[in-house]
Amino acid sequence: MKSGCRVADRIGELEIVGNIVPHLWYKNITFTSGKAHFVAITLLADIVYWYRPMVIRDDSGMIMGARTKFKGDMLQKSYQAFADTYGFTKRQVKDAIDFLVEHHLLVREFRTISSSSIILSNVMYVQPVAENVKRVMDERSHLAELASVCPPVTLERTSPSVPKEDLSRHEEGAPEMEEGTYTESTSKNPSKKNEQQQCAGECPVTFFKENEFGRLGSFMQEKIKSWCERLSDSLVVEAMKRAVEQGKHYWSYVDAILVKWELLQVEDVNDARSKEDEGMVEKMYKKPTRSVGRKPVRTELLPDWFTEEGTVEAPAESFDEDFDVEKAKLMAELEAFRERGAGVVM
Hints:
By secondary structure, the chain is mainly α. The chain has 2 domains: 170 residues, no CATH class; 84 residues, Arc Repressor Mutant, subunit A, CATH 1.10.10. The chain is 45% helix and 9% strand. The chain has 13 helices and 5 strands. Helix 9 crosses helix 10 and helix 10 packs across helix 11. The longest helix has 27 residues. The radius of gyration is 41 Å and the shape is elongated.
Protein backbone atom coordinates (compact mmCIF):
# COMPACT_ATOMS: atom_id res chain seq x y z
CA MET A 1 0.00 0.00 0.00
CA LYS A 2 1.39 3.36 -1.07
CA SER A 3 0.86 6.63 0.80
CA GLY A 4 1.43 8.89 -2.17
CA CYS A 5 4.66 10.31 -0.67
CA ARG A 6 7.74 8.68 -2.15
CA VAL A 7 9.97 9.44 0.89
CA ALA A 8 7.34 8.20 3.35
CA ASP A 9 6.96 4.96 1.42
CA ARG A 10 10.73 4.41 1.42
CA ILE A 11 10.95 5.09 5.18
CA GLY A 12 8.09 2.63 5.71
CA GLU A 13 10.18 -0.08 4.07
CA LEU A 14 12.99 0.31 6.62
CA GLU A 15 13.17 -2.30 9.35
CA ILE A 16 13.93 -0.07 12.34
CA VAL A 17 14.85 -2.01 15.44
CA GLY A 18 15.73 -0.37 18.73
CA ASN A 19 14.47 2.00 21.36
CA ILE A 20 11.15 3.77 21.22
CA VAL A 21 10.86 6.87 23.41
CA PRO A 22 7.32 8.13 24.10
CA HIS A 23 7.18 11.92 23.82
CA LEU A 24 5.48 12.28 27.21
CA TRP A 25 8.59 10.89 28.91
CA TYR A 26 10.34 14.19 28.16
CA LYS A 27 7.57 15.93 30.08
CA ASN A 28 7.15 13.49 32.97
CA ILE A 29 10.69 12.18 33.62
CA THR A 30 12.35 15.40 34.69
CA PHE A 31 14.58 16.96 37.31
CA THR A 32 13.03 19.04 40.08
CA SER A 33 13.66 22.09 37.88
CA GLY A 34 11.34 20.64 35.21
CA LYS A 35 14.13 19.96 32.71
CA ALA A 36 13.96 16.56 31.02
CA HIS A 37 16.41 13.96 32.34
CA PHE A 38 17.76 12.83 28.96
CA VAL A 39 20.21 10.25 30.33
CA ALA A 40 17.53 8.57 32.47
CA ILE A 41 15.06 8.60 29.56
CA THR A 42 17.60 7.03 27.21
CA LEU A 43 18.55 4.27 29.67
CA LEU A 44 14.91 3.49 30.51
CA ALA A 45 14.07 3.25 26.80
CA ASP A 46 16.99 0.85 26.33
CA ILE A 47 15.90 -1.36 29.24
CA VAL A 48 12.27 -1.38 28.08
CA TYR A 49 13.48 -2.44 24.62
CA TRP A 50 15.23 -5.49 26.07
CA TYR A 51 12.06 -6.43 27.96
CA ARG A 52 9.82 -6.17 24.90
CA PRO A 53 9.21 -9.83 23.91
CA MET A 54 10.62 -11.17 20.68
CA VAL A 55 8.05 -12.77 18.41
CA ILE A 56 8.82 -16.32 17.22
CA ARG A 57 7.57 -17.25 13.74
CA ASP A 58 7.68 -20.45 11.77
CA ASP A 59 8.99 -20.83 8.22
CA SER A 60 5.69 -19.67 6.76
CA GLY A 61 5.68 -16.48 8.86
CA MET A 62 2.99 -17.59 11.29
CA ILE A 63 3.44 -16.44 14.89
CA MET A 64 4.38 -19.38 17.11
CA GLY A 65 4.98 -17.57 20.39
CA ALA A 66 7.28 -15.08 22.10
CA ARG A 67 10.43 -15.10 24.20
CA THR A 68 12.71 -12.63 25.95
CA LYS A 69 15.79 -11.15 24.35
CA PHE A 70 17.96 -12.19 27.32
CA LYS A 71 18.56 -15.24 29.46
CA GLY A 72 17.53 -15.47 33.08
CA ASP A 73 14.83 -13.74 35.08
CA MET A 74 16.31 -10.22 34.81
CA LEU A 75 18.46 -8.25 32.38
CA GLN A 76 22.10 -8.10 33.40
CA LYS A 77 23.95 -4.99 32.28
CA SER A 78 26.71 -2.96 33.88
CA TYR A 79 27.15 0.79 34.17
CA GLN A 80 30.10 0.58 31.80
CA ALA A 81 28.05 -1.30 29.18
CA PHE A 82 25.45 1.48 29.14
CA ALA A 83 28.19 4.11 28.99
CA ASP A 84 29.91 2.43 26.04
CA THR A 85 26.64 2.07 24.13
CA TYR A 86 25.47 5.68 24.39
CA GLY A 87 28.66 7.64 24.98
CA PHE A 88 27.80 8.74 28.51
CA THR A 89 30.27 8.72 31.35
CA LYS A 90 30.04 6.00 33.96
CA ARG A 91 29.09 8.58 36.59
CA GLN A 92 26.23 9.89 34.41
CA VAL A 93 24.91 6.35 33.98
CA LYS A 94 25.06 5.59 37.70
CA ASP A 95 23.31 8.84 38.62
CA ALA A 96 20.57 8.16 36.05
CA ILE A 97 20.03 4.59 37.29
CA ASP A 98 19.86 5.90 40.87
CA PHE A 99 17.26 8.44 39.70
CA LEU A 100 15.11 5.76 38.05
CA VAL A 101 15.33 3.49 41.10
CA GLU A 102 14.53 6.35 43.48
CA HIS A 103 11.43 7.25 41.46
CA HIS A 104 10.27 3.62 41.26
CA LEU A 105 10.63 3.23 37.51
CA LEU A 106 13.34 0.61 37.84
CA VAL A 107 14.30 -2.26 40.12
CA ARG A 108 18.03 -2.85 40.57
CA GLU A 109 19.68 -5.84 42.19
CA PHE A 110 23.32 -6.65 42.90
CA ARG A 111 24.02 -10.37 42.83
CA THR A 112 26.94 -12.67 43.34
CA ILE A 113 27.68 -15.00 40.44
CA SER A 114 29.70 -18.08 41.29
CA SER A 115 31.08 -21.03 39.38
CA SER A 116 33.71 -23.66 39.98
CA SER A 117 36.50 -21.30 38.90
CA ILE A 118 35.41 -17.74 39.68
CA ILE A 119 33.19 -15.68 41.96
CA LEU A 120 31.93 -12.30 40.76
CA SER A 121 30.28 -10.00 43.29
CA ASN A 122 28.22 -6.86 42.76
CA VAL A 123 26.88 -7.89 39.34
CA MET A 124 24.02 -5.53 38.46
CA TYR A 125 20.60 -6.68 37.22
CA VAL A 126 17.82 -4.27 36.21
CA GLN A 127 14.10 -4.61 35.58
CA PRO A 128 11.53 -1.92 34.70
CA VAL A 129 8.42 -1.49 36.81
CA ALA A 130 5.80 -2.04 34.09
CA GLU A 131 2.92 -0.33 35.91
CA ASN A 132 4.93 2.85 36.50
CA VAL A 133 6.38 2.87 32.99
CA LYS A 134 2.81 2.84 31.72
CA ARG A 135 1.81 5.66 34.07
CA VAL A 136 4.58 8.03 32.91
CA MET A 137 3.12 7.69 29.40
CA ASP A 138 -0.01 9.43 30.69
CA GLU A 139 -0.50 13.17 30.19
CA ARG A 140 -1.45 13.73 33.84
CA SER A 141 1.27 11.60 35.41
CA HIS A 142 3.76 12.80 38.02
CA LEU A 143 6.85 11.05 39.39
CA ALA A 144 5.78 11.61 43.00
CA GLU A 145 2.70 9.43 42.45
CA LEU A 146 4.60 6.30 41.38
CA ALA A 147 5.62 4.92 44.77
CA SER A 148 2.26 3.33 45.62
CA VAL A 149 2.31 0.83 42.75
CA CYS A 150 5.98 -0.09 42.99
CA PRO A 151 6.52 -3.83 43.65
CA PRO A 152 8.69 -4.90 46.60
CA VAL A 153 12.38 -5.16 45.83
CA THR A 154 13.78 -8.68 46.16
CA LEU A 155 17.33 -9.03 47.40
CA GLU A 156 18.09 -12.21 45.48
CA ARG A 157 16.37 -14.52 43.06
CA THR A 158 17.21 -18.04 42.07
CA SER A 159 17.84 -18.66 38.37
CA PRO A 160 18.23 -21.96 36.56
CA SER A 161 21.74 -23.10 35.73
CA VAL A 162 23.04 -21.46 32.56
CA PRO A 163 26.11 -23.03 30.94
CA LYS A 164 28.66 -20.84 29.21
CA GLU A 165 27.55 -21.85 25.71
CA ASP A 166 23.96 -20.79 26.46
CA LEU A 167 24.81 -17.23 27.49
CA SER A 168 23.04 -14.89 25.10
CA ARG A 169 25.10 -12.44 23.11
CA HIS A 170 22.35 -9.88 23.76
CA GLU A 171 23.31 -9.71 27.43
CA GLU A 172 25.93 -7.02 27.09
CA GLY A 173 28.35 -6.86 29.96
CA ALA A 174 27.38 -10.27 31.35
CA PRO A 175 30.31 -12.22 32.79
CA GLU A 176 31.24 -15.48 31.13
CA MET A 177 31.08 -18.61 33.25
CA GLU A 178 31.78 -22.24 32.66
CA GLU A 179 28.82 -23.40 34.70
CA GLY A 180 26.57 -22.29 37.54
CA THR A 181 23.72 -19.85 37.88
CA TYR A 182 23.24 -16.14 37.50
CA THR A 183 23.07 -15.87 41.27
CA GLU A 184 23.53 -17.95 44.37
CA SER A 185 20.88 -20.44 45.39
CA THR A 186 18.35 -19.26 47.97
CA SER A 187 19.82 -19.68 51.43
CA LYS A 188 17.88 -21.40 54.21
CA ASN A 189 19.04 -18.72 56.59
CA PRO A 190 17.45 -15.42 55.37
CA SER A 191 19.38 -13.22 57.79
CA LYS A 192 22.71 -14.60 56.59
CA LYS A 193 21.58 -14.12 53.00
CA ASN A 194 20.70 -10.48 53.68
CA GLU A 195 24.11 -9.86 55.27
CA GLN A 196 25.82 -11.32 52.22
CA GLN A 197 23.73 -9.12 49.94
CA GLN A 198 24.58 -5.98 51.92
CA CYS A 199 28.28 -6.82 51.76
CA ALA A 200 27.96 -7.30 47.98
CA GLY A 201 26.27 -3.91 47.68
CA GLU A 202 29.10 -2.21 49.64
CA CYS A 203 32.09 -4.14 48.36
CA PRO A 204 35.26 -2.10 49.09
CA VAL A 205 37.24 -3.72 46.27
CA THR A 206 34.52 -2.95 43.72
CA PHE A 207 34.23 0.64 44.97
CA PHE A 208 38.03 0.99 44.72
CA LYS A 209 37.99 -0.10 41.07
CA GLU A 210 34.88 1.81 40.00
CA ASN A 211 36.17 5.12 41.38
CA GLU A 212 39.67 4.67 39.94
CA PHE A 213 41.77 4.82 43.10
CA GLY A 214 44.61 3.17 41.22
CA ARG A 215 45.85 -0.22 40.19
CA LEU A 216 44.39 -2.98 42.34
CA GLY A 217 47.25 -5.38 42.88
CA SER A 218 47.77 -8.03 45.52
CA PHE A 219 49.32 -5.49 47.91
CA MET A 220 46.31 -3.15 47.77
CA GLN A 221 43.92 -6.07 48.13
CA GLU A 222 45.71 -7.08 51.33
CA LYS A 223 45.57 -3.48 52.60
CA ILE A 224 41.84 -3.27 51.98
CA LYS A 225 41.26 -6.69 53.50
CA SER A 226 43.29 -5.74 56.58
CA TRP A 227 41.27 -2.57 57.18
CA CYS A 228 38.00 -4.45 56.65
CA GLU A 229 39.02 -6.88 59.37
CA ARG A 230 40.20 -4.13 61.74
CA LEU A 231 37.13 -1.91 61.23
CA SER A 232 34.42 -3.00 58.77
CA ASP A 233 33.58 -3.07 55.06
CA SER A 234 31.11 -0.21 55.42
CA LEU A 235 33.67 2.05 57.14
CA VAL A 236 36.27 1.38 54.44
CA VAL A 237 33.72 2.25 51.74
CA GLU A 238 32.67 5.36 53.68
CA ALA A 239 36.30 6.52 53.90
CA MET A 240 36.69 6.09 50.13
CA LYS A 241 33.44 8.02 49.55
CA ARG A 242 34.82 10.94 51.55
CA ALA A 243 38.01 10.87 49.51
CA VAL A 244 35.97 10.96 46.29
CA GLU A 245 33.94 13.93 47.57
CA GLN A 246 37.19 15.81 48.24
CA GLY A 247 38.57 14.88 44.81
CA LYS A 248 41.43 12.89 46.34
CA HIS A 249 41.45 9.55 44.57
CA TYR A 250 44.48 8.08 46.29
CA TRP A 251 44.76 5.51 49.05
CA SER A 252 46.97 7.52 51.44
CA TYR A 253 44.06 9.92 52.06
CA VAL A 254 41.71 6.99 52.76
CA ASP A 255 44.33 5.39 54.99
CA ALA A 256 44.62 8.59 57.07
CA ILE A 257 40.84 8.63 57.64
CA LEU A 258 40.85 4.99 58.70
CA VAL A 259 43.75 5.54 61.11
CA LYS A 260 41.85 8.42 62.71
CA TRP A 261 38.70 6.29 63.08
CA GLU A 262 40.69 3.45 64.60
CA LEU A 263 42.15 5.83 67.20
CA LEU A 264 38.64 7.11 67.97
CA GLN A 265 37.44 3.48 68.27
CA VAL A 266 34.69 4.06 65.72
CA GLU A 267 32.21 1.18 65.48
CA ASP A 268 30.17 2.04 62.37
CA VAL A 269 29.40 4.87 59.93
CA ASN A 270 26.91 6.59 62.23
CA ASP A 271 29.37 6.40 65.12
CA ALA A 272 32.07 7.98 62.93
CA ARG A 273 29.81 10.89 62.04
CA SER A 274 28.70 11.50 65.63
CA LYS A 275 32.27 11.44 66.99
CA GLU A 276 33.48 13.78 64.27
CA ASP A 277 30.61 16.17 65.06
CA GLU A 278 31.61 16.09 68.75
CA GLY A 279 35.19 16.88 67.78
CA MET A 280 34.12 19.87 65.68
CA VAL A 281 32.02 21.28 68.55
CA GLU A 282 34.93 20.83 70.97
CA LYS A 283 37.28 22.69 68.62
CA MET A 284 34.85 25.57 68.32
CA TYR A 285 34.62 25.98 72.10
CA LYS A 286 38.39 25.80 72.56
CA LYS A 287 39.14 28.28 69.80
CA PRO A 288 40.30 31.67 71.28
CA THR A 289 38.11 34.64 70.45
CA ARG A 290 39.65 37.59 68.62
CA SER A 291 38.15 40.99 67.97
CA VAL A 292 37.44 41.38 64.29
CA GLY A 293 39.07 44.30 62.51
CA ARG A 294 41.27 45.45 65.42
CA LYS A 295 44.94 44.80 65.88
CA PRO A 296 46.18 43.91 69.36
CA VAL A 297 47.60 46.88 71.32
CA ARG A 298 51.30 46.54 71.93
CA THR A 299 52.26 47.18 75.55
CA GLU A 300 55.84 47.96 76.59
CA LEU A 301 57.17 46.97 80.00
CA LEU A 302 59.05 49.82 81.73
CA PRO A 303 62.48 49.00 83.18
CA ASP A 304 62.90 48.88 86.93
CA TRP A 305 65.25 51.87 87.04
CA PHE A 306 62.55 54.10 85.52
CA THR A 307 60.48 53.91 88.70
CA GLU A 308 63.39 53.91 91.16
CA GLU A 309 63.58 56.47 93.93
CA GLY A 310 65.39 59.64 93.00
CA THR A 311 63.54 60.12 89.76
CA VAL A 312 61.59 63.35 90.11
CA GLU A 313 58.33 63.54 88.32
CA ALA A 314 57.00 67.09 87.80
CA PRO A 315 53.55 67.57 89.16
CA ALA A 316 50.79 68.52 86.81
CA GLU A 317 50.31 71.95 88.49
CA SER A 318 53.90 73.10 87.64
CA PHE A 319 53.14 72.93 83.95
CA ASP A 320 50.20 75.28 84.44
CA GLU A 321 52.29 77.89 86.43
CA ASP A 322 55.06 77.99 83.82
CA PHE A 323 52.49 78.53 81.11
CA ASP A 324 50.98 81.53 82.96
CA VAL A 325 54.42 83.14 83.48
CA GLU A 326 55.35 82.86 79.81
CA LYS A 327 51.95 84.20 78.82
CA ALA A 328 52.39 87.27 81.06
CA LYS A 329 55.83 88.01 79.55
CA LEU A 330 54.47 87.79 76.00
CA MET A 331 51.57 90.11 76.82
CA ALA A 332 53.96 92.70 78.37
CA GLU A 333 56.22 92.65 75.30
CA LEU A 334 53.20 93.03 73.03
CA GLU A 335 51.94 96.04 75.02
CA ALA A 336 55.40 97.73 74.86
CA PHE A 337 55.51 97.17 71.11
CA ARG A 338 52.16 98.87 70.68
CA GLU A 339 53.26 101.91 72.75
CA ARG A 340 56.42 102.38 70.66
CA GLY A 341 54.33 102.23 67.52
CA ALA A 342 51.97 104.91 68.81
CA GLY A 343 54.86 107.37 69.47
CA VAL A 344 56.15 107.33 65.86
CA VAL A 345 55.24 110.53 63.94
CA MET A 346 54.33 110.03 60.27
